[in-house]
């Protein structure tokens, strides 16, 4: 496929936005500038793309859960991005890539509700989540998702296999793995249509491999097993960081979340502007939402500036241990 002029314009726009996205490499700037009041945080975020959403969607006097803060930032950013799409009008393949990437949040909410009655959802609105919780048949889930416009190609393809089953009969673990495999296969195919580089494809492959490894890593840690038997496909440096942080569940989960971002950003950030740029940007936004939702939650919960600064400082140290 030959990339259209509008796609090139859109990718260049995204490259500019990537420079204005909070990621581990510029966390130190935030840690040095912010006073860890909500007003201070807004001041420190000036110049970053997300600052407008933080200012519009969040208030210092409103105690919100971390999940809800993440959700507000995600949906605000998506709305702004959709407005840009309407203005620049990139190709259908670019829009499909963004739609597919966004669908991962729906997939996560859906599997969480079906497996454990997930209390808070990131993307699905509360009424939809409550309807899904009371559903008894897979066909009911399909009906609810379809009516609300959340039936992505990935979800439709996998749910269709179980249409005649009761939810109680569903092996959610198998269902979740099928969804994940189909999602990553679709992501790879969509990126290929946009002439993504071999580095972009390697990023997707790593994301898939690491996502598959996470349940085993968590289970092994919980049961006190030998993590070295689970991390055999990772590099020596990645193995060392995971093993070193296994003494703290908090640090361990942070590394699990940031390691794929680091791997992909490290191989994508210097490539020519292309679909690789868009992939890098989307992954960095995940990191940004996660970091800011936690910081805002700590601020609104009344934690001291010193404690929050220490927390962010520890994140910086963990990230730097990955990059050394």
- Gross morphology is globular
What summary fits the major beta sheet?
A: none
Mean pLDDT: 90
Write down the secondary-structure element order.
HHHHHHHHHHHHHHH
Structural class, by secondary structure, is mainly alpha
Radius of gyration: 20 Å
As a percent range, the share of strand residues is under 5%
Number of strands: 0
Give helix % range.
over 70%
Low-confidence stretches: none
What is the rounded distance between the termini?
38 Å
Oligomer: single chain
Q: How would you describe this protein?
A:
- It contains 15 helices and no strands.
- It is an all-alpha fold and 324 residues long.
- It is globular.
Topology of helices and strands:
Blueprint: H1 5-19, H2 27-33, H3 38-44, H4 51-57, H5 66-88, H6 92-116, H7 126-134, H8 138-147, H9 153-159, H10 172-193, H11 198-222, H12 236-245, H13 249-268, H14 275-300, H15 305-323
Keywords:
15 helices; mainly alpha; 324 residues; globular; 72% helix
Brief summary of the model shown:
By secondary structure, this protein is mostly helical. Helices cover about 70% and strands about 0% of the residues.
């Amino acid at each position: 496929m030959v990339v259209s002029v509008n796609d090139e314009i859109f990718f260049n726009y995204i490259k500019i936005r990537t420079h204005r996205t909070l990621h581990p490499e510029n966390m130190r700037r935030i840690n040095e500038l912010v006073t860890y009041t909500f007003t201070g945080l807004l001041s420190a975020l000036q110049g970053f793309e997300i600052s407008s959403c933080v200012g519009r969607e969040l208030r210092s006097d409103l105690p919100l859960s971390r999940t809800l803060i993440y959700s507000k930032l995600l949906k605000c950013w998506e709305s702004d991005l959709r407005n840009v799409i309407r203005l620049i009008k990139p190709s259908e393949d670019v829009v499909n890539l963004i739609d597919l990437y966004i669908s991962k949040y729906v997939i996560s909410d859906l599997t969480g509700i079906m497996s454990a009655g997930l209390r808070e959802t990131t993307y699905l609105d509360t009424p939809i989540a409550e309807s899904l919780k009371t559903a008894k048949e897979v066909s009911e889930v399909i009906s609810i998702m379809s009516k609300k416009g959340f039936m992505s190609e990935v979800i439709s393809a996998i749910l269709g296999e179980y249409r005649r089953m009761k939810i109680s009969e569903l092996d959610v673990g198998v269902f979740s793995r099928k969804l994940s495999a189909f999602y990553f296969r679709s992501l790879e195919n969509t990126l290929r249509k946009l002439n993504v580089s071999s580095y972009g494809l390697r990023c997707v492959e790593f994301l898939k491999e690491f996502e598959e490894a996470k349940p085993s890593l968590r289970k092994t840690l919980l049961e006190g097993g030998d993590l070295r038997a689970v991390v055999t496909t990772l590099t020596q440096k990645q193995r060392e960081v995971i093993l070193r942080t296994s003494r703290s569940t908090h640090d361990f989960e942070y590394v699990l979340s940031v390691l794929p971002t680091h791997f992909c950003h490290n191989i994508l950030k210097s490539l020519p502007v292309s679909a690789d740029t868009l992939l890098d940007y989307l992954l960095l936004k995940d990191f940004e939402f996660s970091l800011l939702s936690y910081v805002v939650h700590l601020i609104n919960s009344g934690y001291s500036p010193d404690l929050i600064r220490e927390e962010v400082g520890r994140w910086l140290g963990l990230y730097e241990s990955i990059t050394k």
